Amino acid sequence: MIITTQINQQRLWRTIHELGKIGAGSNDAEGVTRLALSLEDLEARQYIIELMEESGLDVRVDVVGNIIGKLEGKDKFAPVVMTGSHVDTVYQGGLFDGALGVLGAIEAVRSIKESGIELSHSIEVVSFTDEEGTRFGTGYIGSKAMTGYLDQATLQLKDANGITYQEAFKQAGFDSKQYKQAIRKPEELKAYLEMHIEQGKVLEEHELAVGVVTNIQGPVWLEVTLNGYPDHAGATPMNMRKDASLAMAEVMLEVERISTTYQGVGTVGKIHVEPGGVNVIPGRAVFSIDLRHGDKELRTKMMEEVTTAVKKIGEQREIGAEIDMKKAVDPAICSESIVHILEESCDELDIPTMKLPCGAGHDSLMMTKVTEMGMIFVRSKDGISHNPKEWTDQEDCVIGTQVLLQALVKLAK
Ligand SMILES: [Zn+2]
C-alpha cells in the first residue's frame, strides 16, 4: 500500500452535512433544493468560498460564478490540474450529487497542502455554476462558459417566473455579459478529474465502493408541443376528437421502443397538459424527451426516429406537432491515461474497483472539449439520486476522496 497522505475523514463528513443543511427543507419540501443562482445556491457558494479560504486555497470567482480555489504548484507556468463538480441541485435533491465532488476535492487538496507534499503543477478546485439545468432548462452553464460553449441565446432563456439567465446572474452579482472572460485555453489545463456519485446500481451490484468511468453518455433534450382541440369530454364522440394527450401517449411508447432497439435510454419525464380539466379533452400537450447513448451516431439515429414518429403521429391524428431541441451534449470518452492513473491509484491503496460507463451528464462532458478528462464514481445506495433518499456511506465518500487525492498527486507531481 502506497499512501501519499491520508484525508481527514471526519472533516469531509462534517462539510458534507454542513453544506447539506443549506437549502434543506426550503419551501417545506423534503430534501435539499438549491436551484442555480437562487438564495440557497448563493448561500452554498459562500460556504464553499469560506471553506476554500480556510483550506488555504487562493480563491477567485469568474464572471459566470464558477468558484475556483487554487493550490499553487512549484511551476507557475505549468498547465493546471483541475478537479471539482457543482453545488446546485434539482428540486428536492440529496446531500451528495455534485457536493461530494466539490467537498471531496477541497478535502483532498487541503490534505495535500497540510502534508507538505510538493507538486510541480497547480491544482484548481472548481465549483461550477448551474450544472443541473433545473431552473432554466439547460445545464452545464459554468463549464460551458469555461470551455467557450456558452452563447447569448442561452443567457436569454427564462425561468418559470420569466426571469432571464442574464437577469438572474445580475441579481446574484455576476456580469454574465462578459461571459467570454471565463474561457480557459487548452494549454492552461493539464487534466480535469471529477468525483461524483454513481447515480446507478452497478457498483452496489458489484459490492464496490468506487469505479473508474470509461465514457459518458451525452443527453439530448427535446421539447415536444402537440396542438389538438379542447372539446367537451361528454359531448364529443371518440372519432371526432383531437386529443393531444393520446398523441403524447403514443409518442411516449415510441420513445421506449426506439431507445430499447438502439440499446440507449429514453425518458419522458416532464409533461404538461392543457387546459387540465377532468371533463375537457386535452387540447395541448407539452413534454420533454431525454435521449442518451454512448455513441453519438446512434444517438442521432434515435433522435431522427423519434422526430419521424412525432410527425407521423401528429399527421395521423391531425394534431399539430412541433419539436424544439433544448440541449444536445456530445458523448465523451475518458482519457486513457487518466483511467490508467485511477486504476493504479486504487491498486496502490488496495481498493478493488471496476471500469464502467456513465449514464448521467456532468460538467466533465464539457471539460473534455478542452482537456484530458477522467471520472471517479462512488457507490450510491439503491442507485437513488435527485431525491431526498440519495445516500452514499461515509466510508465510500472517504475511499473515493482518498483515490481522488492519490490520482491528483500523480497528475500534478
Ligand atoms: Zn451532479
Q: What does this 3D model show about the protein?
A:
This protein has 413 residues and is an alpha/beta fold. The protein folds into two domains: 291 residues, Aminopeptidase; 110 residues, 2-Layer Sandwich (Alpha-Beta Plaits). It contains twelve helices and 14 strands. The strands form two sheets. Strands 1, 2, 3, 4, 5, 6, 12, 13 and 14 form a nine-stranded mixed β-sheet that branches. Helix 3 crosses helix 12, helix 8 packs antiparallel against helix 9 and helix 10 crosses helix 12. The relative contact order is 0.18. The model has no long low-confidence stretch (mean pLDDT 95). Bound molecules: zinc ion (ZN). Zinc ion binds next to loops.
Features:
413 residues; Alpha-Beta Plaits; 2 domains; five-stranded antiparallel beta sheet; elongated; binds zinc ion; hydrolase; metal-binding; Amidase_Cbmase; metal ion binding; hydrolase activity, acting on carbon-nitrogen (but not peptide) bonds, in linear amidines
